[in-house]
Amino acid sequence: MAIEPIVEVRELSKVYLQGETNVVALNRVSVGIQAGEFVVLMGPSGSGKSTLLHLIAGIDRPTSGQVLVRGINVANLNESALAEWRNRNVGFVFQSFNLIPVLTAAENVELPLLLTSLSSRQRREHVAAALDLVGLTERAKHLPRQLSGGQEQRVAIARALVTDPLLVVADEPTGNLDSKSATDVLTILQSLSREANKTVIMVTHDPKAAAFGSRQLHLEKGEIVA
Amino acid sequence: MTIAGFITKNALRNRRRALLSVGSVAVSLFLLVTLMTLVRELTIPPEDIGASLRLVVRNKVSLAQPLPWKQITQLDKIPGVMAVTPFTFFGGNYKDLKVTSFAQFAVDPVRFTNVFVENRSSKEQIEAWIKNKAGCLVGADTMRRYDMKIGDTLKLTGTFYPCDLELKIEGTYKGSVDDRTVFFHHKYLDELSGDLGTVGTWWVRVASAEVVPEVRKQINQTFENTSASVSAETERSFQMSFVSMWGNIKVLIESISSVVVFTLMLVTVSTMSMAIRERFRELAILKAIGFRRREIFAFILAESFGLAALGGVIGIGGAALFWGLLDVQKLSNGFLVYFEVVPRTMARAAVVAAVLGVVSAIGPSLSVAQTSVVEGLKTLD
Predict the structure, then answer these.
(1) Of B62, B65, B234, B261, which is the most buried if we count CB atoms within 10 A?
(2) Structural domain tally of chain A?
(3) Is B18 on the interface with A (CB under 8 A)?
(4) Is residue A139 domain-resident?
(5) How distant is the Cα of A180 from the closest Cα of chain B, in angstroms?
(6) What is the ipTM of this complex?
């Protein structure tokens, strides 16, 4: 019996209006992603890989088509329901880390949990577990400016994982890191996929980074070419 | 971490700016409370029960025109009139003061005590004053200000009356709307000025509030078409006619207050807009990880409201404390008797602070709400 994909993208299109010109960022893309896969989206600038990632993660709306995550059509959710869905199902890792500078590493990781019904003690336990997973227990009380770039990105990964989401989406997560830190981050993402059976979708330009994934999708001019 | 802790950390992330914002709100609200209190002190009409039962009868032509003494017999006979006293402004100068901070009025002492029933004074002092034609009753504020004592001599130099007064302080009073005034015997003034047979105004106490309109009408009709037609009005409206002289100053002060509020609004809206603009990307992250528009709005509102409220507490509380500790009468050379920051004024200023907090949150909140997560992530830090 065939396994149902956890993410199913059907005929997905995104058209931007730039001035009076329609720019097709994504053209009727269809793809399925299984649970536990580490999918890498590659392609030149403007190929639509980030757009596809944003649409799957529910932070952008498609012009047409469907994004089904565990059977739920994300595009049909209203603004409020979509925010709640993202909180429960998606963990984000961005190129520039995007930690809140006035919060400590632990507080940054705790942020998505403020929207849940967990008690303060439960939240602390979840935060400790997430920081332990990325090897930053000792840095829990440090502010982002007191951390290296690699450590900041690991805090961002802990924040992405703390709600135990279905998907972890990463947009160029190693773009601002040195090769050692980049390898550390990619190893964590890879182990999430292999050991924790998390579905990871990552955008990158870097073939070395792409090699950590279990599958690569190449996009050009808004279409999957390989 | 709690939501409140998160908001506080955000509000204080740029401590200097937060301090300057709170400071600007505090100083502006201090100024606003001061201006509102000044307007109140300049325009407050007497509101005690005694004032609502008193009528002031003046010459219909103008307040400067005197009224004949003989009118008193007719006034006494009007139904509803309980007591009548002459009330003549002397306008003397005390010692070598350029501006005397207290008014002096010639009255009939016995009738006076029946008209101004709310004044608190000892029975012995009143009796002593009634007995001594050259005696006077001095308000408690004036006694305190010039360090006067019962038995002292009070010398007043006439300005438009061709005589000077040498009065013995027989008693003091308090509990009136203005505890500064000096009252003395009208007969004494008549003697010194050559018995002109006139009075400045009549002050009348009426039996009850219900008959005030009828008594007023009767008084006006009684002296209609005589050589001295009168205009009777309630003490409150009489005082308000003086207040109307302040009209332009009131408008000026209120205009300044409006400018203060408007400027404050611009400053806080601009500060909040800058503070939020700097965090556009962070707010996009919050949206991405699941915070809804209403929660983001609540964060911005709480931060803005918190800064305005803190500024409000410092500014309004500071004004109440400052003016409460200061001797405004002395500072203003007697121009202002009281300068009390009343709860109503504080409440109005607090509403201004609250509105400020809300209004300055609206613009940034709308801006954040209208920006998608993807657009927000693209903004530079």
Answers:
(1) B234
(2) 1
(3) no
(4) yes
(5) 26
(6) 0.90
